[in-house]
Amino acid sequence: MGVLRRHKILASVGVVAAVGLGLIAWSVAQIDSPGPASVDDALDRLHQDGGDAGPDAAMTPPQGVYDYVGEGREGLSFPPLSQQDGDQIPGTVTHRPRGCWTFRIDFNAEHWQDWRYCLDTRGAGLAEVGGRSGQTWDLGVSQVSNESLFVCDPPSPLLPPPTAGTTTEEACTGTNSALGGETTSAGPSLYVGPDTITVDGEDLETLHFRGERTLTGAQEGTEHTESWFRADGLLVRYERDIEIRSDSPVGAITYTESGWLQLARLEPRR
Questions:
Q1: Sequence-ordered alpha helix ranges (H) in the chain
Q2: Rounded to whole angstroms, how far apart are CA atoms 43 and 239?
Q3: Distance from C-alpha of 209 to C-alpha of 231, rounded to nearest angstrom
Q4: CA 226 to CA 4: how far, in whole Å?
């Protein structure tokens, strides 16, 4: 029922290495240009990880690396740093045991996010159970990295969708390696209804969700997301607009993220 709210829980909470960055002098601040993520690296990661390449099942996209295109920008208020999403954005589906699978997006060479989905015990529906995100900022004289880990308890239902116009309240809680304490991302998810998106010359019937989230705890902020999914759960299009505030020794630091991405090729690379 609520889908898109999950699709920004992780990156929005897990990308601000505010404490470490706040200690760096303004003189070292620079534009961080990590470049696009590598499709070959995504394939190598998939092959090394192994996954569970058994037969495709309902509510489980085929395993492989999918091509996405899009635009996006992430920024920090202090030091004044920014990153751009790459001109190629690989999205990787990896099958897991017991009816689970993960989906990872590499926004650029230094910013990624994944989500973990599982079938319920009866195989009657698909839900998000959590995920991770990571980001590295290049400060010239050094690099600062951080990762987040989030859990949705209870899991957030994804498929089958509810009736169009249905709103669902959901929440996930997690931690960030750069900050102490927990952050909760919670709010309503609206299933807008079915929608058609053209991909690779083919009209796809998709499920359109809209999410409004409020973050509380170790980090505070808001996030707005629009997400379109294929009937098997594969993300087809994703739009995001996020603002997160974190305390640091030099005062509040704001992280912003905005952009969109869309599936460009129906068949995955294997």
A1: 6-14, 18-21, 39-49
A2: 25
A3: 13
A4: 6
- The alpha carbon torsion through 173, 116, 70, 168 (nearest 10 deg) reads -60
β partners of residue 240: 225, 259
pLDDT digits (tens, 9 = 90+) for 136-164: 988 777 788 889 999 998 888 999 999 99
Tokens 């192994």 correspond to: 50
Contact assessment for residue 126 and residue 119, using Cβ atoms and an 8 Å cutoff: yes
C-alpha 94/C-alpha 116 separation (Å) is: 10
**Residues ≥6 apart with Cβ < 8 Å to 48:** none
Cα separation, 10 vs 117, whole angstroms? 14
Question: Which residues fall within 8 angstroms of residue 112, CB to CB, at 6 or more apart?
Answer: 37, 104, 105, 106, 133, 134, 135
Cis, peptide link before residue 79, omega less than 30° from 0: yes
pLDDT per position as a tens digit, 61-117 = 999 999 999 999 999 998 888 999 999 999 999 999 888 999 999 999 999 999 999
Instruction: State the burial class of residue 176 (Cβ atoms within 10 Å of its Cβ: 0-12, 13-18, 19+).
Output: buried
Cβ atoms 162, 191 nearer than 8 A: yes
Max Cα-Cα span within the chain: 57
Side chain identity, residue 216: T
Tell me 269's DSSP state: B
d(CA 35, CA 106): 11
